[in-house]
Design goal:
This protein has 607 residues and is mainly α. Among the domains are: 257-492, no CATH class; 497-601. It has 23 helices and five strands. It has helices at 23-48, 59-70, 86-97, 101-118, 120-127, 134-146, 148-151, 160-179, 183-199, 204-216, 222-251, 258-266, 270-287, 291-308, 314-333, 336-341, 357-373, 377-401, 441-459, 466-493, 497-510, 528-538, 594-601; strands at 514-518, 544-548, 560-563, 576-583, 586-590. It has a five-stranded mixed β-sheet with strand order 2-1-3-5-4. Strand 4 and strand 5 form a beta hairpin. 52% of the residues are buried. The mean pLDDT is 94.
């Protein structure tokens, strides 16, 4: 073992023993690694070219507005379920130097691209534990980062790219702690896990699994385990307080995303759980071209070796974090509303992947590393048999029930969108078992592709270069297909400056810095907060938006109120609409006062 190689896993348990590559082969690996990294950078940059306006009025705008709040700038009222602030904290300095929200959004996208590129290095350091040379490990990290579930994140300004980097760093801290168990490394590990949680509240399973793992480390060195546990407890409490406090300032309420999970646990229905578990697991296997299956079997083997020796080691930590994250992701969606009752039918509710993707990517990397080492027949057989056992009920039971024709949010299920061109565009009755040509063929073709990949992995296992190059090619092609879906989604969902251009010009001419948005109107197009949040972003930095409800407040203390089309409760207080300005299913109403008198005299109001 070279001095620079970190302590390795017992690779022989899951992969063939291979002699060290000769120098000529190592040079080839450096070329492959450089090509894979370049391919990742170019692919994700191309994906991000269309990201010039927010497409998520909640997930993206919440953290961008939180960054503005932390920067000390005036900000509009805002509505969402609440998000933890890690990504928003990182973006705060943008508002110190930039005023234009469009420029802030593009700059945030560039920061995300840099973070995603930076993740390749620590992920490679993790993968080296599989006795890979550095160029091989870099190749694995770059290939995993180019798969659609990771690369499509470049099309949005979401927490996930920072989150993935922090998950990788937390894993690296866990591995280093086990390899040399000191108090300092235990504290660093606890802080790294807390940073993951600060970035996304759905990462609570990482905190819980890490806490249990630290308890297991008590037998190795109790002082370090105790220091890590205490630090983790304090850091968890601090993150809870920071997250809840900032959400309370921004939303005047604490985040409530965890309520759905608790409600689903209280009203647990096994059938719902099984459906979502099958769908989400299918997503992970298909989206990784089967690599997560190989990685998971290898992980179980390695973790079991640790447990048999009464050690809570590196594989045990990763196994605990992965399974806990999978369980939360399934529970979050396992209810009748998500599957059937919601009138806004969604396919992604059945095969959701976004919550698990940042953690499952580590298992995918493990799977690709095992292929490079030469997967053992037993590991491959278990992975392939498990995949076939998963696909059978998915194809004959789950797929016929799922609304394959329904709405898709690409970033939620990016891993399966390489086959998105097979999705139907029109609804059809349930009960259709997928075939090669019918409306439900999407499920069958995706599944067969993965089974073919698994067979191919066994056939080429003695040629280490083949699998990563092939998966890289599949990842690039798959990302291109998923990006086409993402671009179509953006075209319909992102903020279009032209929609509010006339209103922005009108507000600038009046000099008003505060306007109101009336929540009493029955606007089409989704949740009431969608247009409210979009408007609040669009008119920055000239004015901020506040929330009113004319049902209970027909005379709000604002000169300009964005209210209902045609008629409004505000009319009873003497408000008049502005002629020629309509956007977001709204008219602009002017309350009685000097501004109304001026605009009326100019003939700009409808009497």
């Amino acid at each position: 073992m070279s001095r620079t190689r970190p302590p390795a896993f017992p690779v022989g348990a899951v992969a063939l023993a291979r002699p060290r590559d000769p120098r000529a082969v190592t040079r080839i690996w450096w070329i492959v690694a450089a090509g894979a990294i370049l391919a990742n950078l170019v692919t994700t940059a191309i994906v991000g070219l269309s990201a010039d306006q927010p497409a998520f009025p909640f997930d993206e705008l919440h953290l961008l507005q939180l960054a503005r709040l932390l920067a000390g700038d005036p900000m509009p009222e805002y509505g969402s379920a609440g998000y933890f602030p890690g990504w928003g904290i990182l973006l705060t300095p943008l508002w110190w130097f930039l005023d234009d929200p469009d420029t802030v959004y593009r700059a945030a996208g560039i920061i995300g691209w840099v973070l995603a590129a930076a993740t390749i290095w620590p992920l490679a350091l993790l993968v080296r534990r599989m006795r890979l040379d550095l160029p091989q490990a870099l190749t694995v990290a770059a290939v995993v980062s180019t798969l659609p579930s990771r690369a499509i994140q470049a099309d949005y300004v979401l927490s996930e790219r920072l989150l993935f980097l922090l998950v990788v760093l937390a894993a690296l801290a866990a591995f280093r702690l086990f390899e040399h168990t000191t108090i300092w490394r235990a504290v660093v590990f606890a802080v790294a896990v807390a940073a993951v949680y600060l970035t996304h509240m759905r990462m609570l399973p990482v905190v819980l699994a890490s806490g249990v793992w630290l308890v297991g480390l008590l037998v190795k060195r109790w002082q370090a385990a105790l220091a890590g546990g205490l630090t983790l407890a304090v850091a968890w409490y601090a993150v809870e307080r920071i997250g809840n406090t900032l959400n309370d300032v921004l939303l005047e309420s604490e985040p409530n995303q965890s309520e759905s999970v608790m409600k689903n646990i209280e009203n647990f229905v096994p059938g719902f759980f099984v459906r979502v578990a099958l769908g989400q697991t299918w997503n992970q296997v298909v989206g990784s071209y089967g690599l997560v299956a190989i990685g998971f079997v290898a992980l179980v083997v390695l973790a079991w070796r640790e447990v048999r020796r009464f050690r809570m080691g590196r594989a045990t930590w990763l196994f605990g974090v992965f399974t806990a994250s999978w369980l939360l992701s399934v529970l979050a969606w396992a209810n009748d509303w998500n599957l059937w009752e919601n009138p806004w039918r969604r396919l992604d509710s059945w095969v959701y992947g976004r919550y698990l993707d940042p953690v499952s990517a580590l298992v995918v990397a493990l799977g690709l590393a095992v292929l490079i080492r030469g997967v053992r027949t037993g590991v491959w057989a278990w992975a392939t048999a498990g995949t076939a056992a998963l696909f059978a009920p998915v194809l004959v039971w789950l797929a016929p029930q799922a609304p394959t024709w329904a709405h898709v949010t690409p970033v939620h299920i990016a891993g399966v969108l390489p086959w998105g061109f097979l999705l139907p565009t029109e609804p059809f009755d349930p009960g259709v078992i997928p075939s090669f040509t019918n409306e439900n063929r999407f499920w069958l073709w995706a599944s067969l592709t993965v089974l073919a990949c698994l067979v191919g992995y066994l056939l080429v296992r003695r040629w280490a270069l083949v699998a990563p190059v092939a998966v890289l090619a599949l990842g690039i092609a798959g990302t291109a297909g998923a990006d086409a879906w993402s671009d179509r989604f953006r075209a319909g969902e992102e903020i279009h400056p032209a929609d509010t251009a006339a209103f922005e010009e009108f507000v600038a001419e009046t000099g008003e810095t505060e306007i109101a948005y009336d929540f009493s109107c029955g606007r089409p197009g989704g949740f009431p907060g969608v247009y409210f949040n979009k408007l609040g972003w669009s008119i920055l930095p000239d004015a901020v938006v506040d929330r009113v409800d004319s049902n209970g407040e027909p005379n709000p203390p604002y000169d300009i109120v964005v209210s209902c089309v045609g008629d409004s409760n505000l009319r009873a207080s003497g408000a008049l609409p502005v002629e020629g300005i309509e956007f977001y299913a709204s008219w602009v109403w002017i309350m009685p006062g000097e501004l109304q008198d001026e605009l009326r005299a100019e003939g700009l109001l409808i009497d």
